[in-house]
# Entry
Amino acid sequence: MAYAARHPEHIRHLVTVDSAAPRWADTVFLFKDIFPEGQERADSFAFADALGDSTPQRSHREQLFGSNWNGPNRRTGPGRWLALTR
# Structure
């Protein structure tokens, strides 16, 4: 990005992926605007965690990763992480 700012004559297109502002506080997160239902779900998980109930968060992880990571190699493959969070 610094090169593009210094030499715009050499840049035709600039694609930024997974980038943040120089100061984290200045980073704008658009997920809540694009996916409001996801933000509501995340807020509900945070609320449940604050009350000491991690079941919804754990259930969500199992739903998200379960079909891919709960196979026969679950204890040695990537599913090991999911198993350790139970």
In short: The chain has a mean pLDDT of 76.
